[in-house]
Amino acid sequence: MVRRLVYVIVGLILGAPMVVMGAEGFSAWFVDVGQGGATLLHQPGKCAMLVDAGPIGSGTRLNKLFEREGVKRLDYVIITHPHKDHYGGLKSIARKMPIREFSDNGDVNIEERGFEDYSQLQYDLPYSVIGAGDSWMCGDLAVDVLHPAADYDSGKDYNSRSLALNVSYRGFSLLLMGDLAGPGEKQMLRESPVPLASVIQLAHHGAEDSTSPELLKRVRPTIAVISVGQNDIGAPSPEVLGRLAENKVRAFRTDIEGTIRLLVAENGNFRVTH
């Protein structure tokens, strides 16, 4: 199949001339892992960060991507929340790939399949719990945790405590929402300085309880990426797709396009390929 290219220049319309990518830029890979989430941020020679690891069985696909892209070590692995479609692939990744630092939001979900194996990695790897206000540099990428606050208790609503991250680089901003939806999304909008973002990865695979009009008004993205596969939650929902269309946000879906690559130039301009 011929790969199509869609070029986007910040502040201009879709279909503008190709952006010239600089050597200091980075790529964000939204990996097609079926129903789940896995995003690789890679600035060659400087940093590689994996946000979520897809469902059980997706480690093989992710390891092949690492090999193809020359990733020799994961500097950071962030698991947004304890659902198996976000942590399931990490065990097989950790067998082959050195991991410098592994973090999650500290939630425990012993009822979820594979959680015992996942939690063992918290002892086997350098591990920390992160939350709103934490920040670090991954190469030249600034990463800020927007949610949840340490004292935010959502009971067993694990989605409402999903980590949400903002990744910024030279005027470009990417918002990674994990599965943050419903009451948790409202809490983030009340309590966190949610910035504008050029690209947003929709929460909860675009399910109806995610991506409120208030969030889109605050973030004002140009592009939305939906990491999704066959599911029983109705994702992405017609309501969410309608909200994106109303706000003139162009949507890309891993269940249609496959793995989606976002390339960001050293001047902050970007393009999407699939």
Strand content: 25-35%
Average pLDDT score: 92
SS class: alpha/beta
Shape: globular
For the biggest β-sheet, the strand order reads 1-16-15-2-3-4-5-6-7
Q: How much helix is in the residues?
A: 10-25%
Which oligomeric form is depicted? Answer: single chain
- Count of helix runs: 8
Would you summarize the structure shown here?
The chain has 274 residues and is α/β, with parallel strands linked by helices. It is 22% helix and 26% strand.
Structure description:
The protein has 274 residues and is α/β, with parallel strands linked by helices. Helices cover 22% and strands 26% of the residues. The chain is built from 8 helices and 16 strands. It has helices at 59-68, 84-87, 90-96, 115-124, 183-191, 213-219, 238-246, 254-257; strands at 5-8, 26-30, 39-43, 47-51, 76-79, 102-104, 127-129, 135-138, 141-147, 164-169, 172-176, 199-201, 223-226, 250-253, 260-264, 270-273. Strands 1-16-15-2-3-4-5-6-7 form a 9-stranded mixed beta sheet, with helices on one face. Strands 8-9-10-11-12-13-14 form a 7-stranded mixed beta sheet. Helix 1 crosses helix 3. The longest helix has 10 residues, at 59-68. Residues 1-22 have low confidence and may be disordered.
